[in-house]
Amino acid sequence: MDLAVGERVPAVPRNLEADPGDRILVATAEVHGPSIVSADGKIPSMTDCPVVW
After folding, report:
1. Residues 30/8, Cβ–Cβ less than 8 Å
2. pLDDT in tens, 6-29
């Protein structure tokens, strides 16, 4: 994690079921641009980044 990701994490939507690790993963993708590879069905609702699985 770098400073840009750390600053982005608070802007990632969260709900009662949001895992902190998922929020870091989403923030990383939003800052650096890669697709997210995950079977977690909650992640697509947390970001506009492409989610593959």
Report:
1. yes
2. 999 999 988 767 789 999 999 999
Residues 25, 23: Cα–Cα separation, whole Å: 5
- Kindly give the residue spans of alpha helices, DSSP state H, lying in 1-53: 3-8, 20-32
Q: Please give the model's pTM, rounded to 2 decimal places.
A: 0.86
Cβ atoms within 10 Å of 25's Cβ, excluding its own: 22
pLDDT of residue 17: 72
The per-residue b/e assignment along 38-51, b for 16 or more CB within 10 angstroms, e otherwise, is beeeebeebbebeb
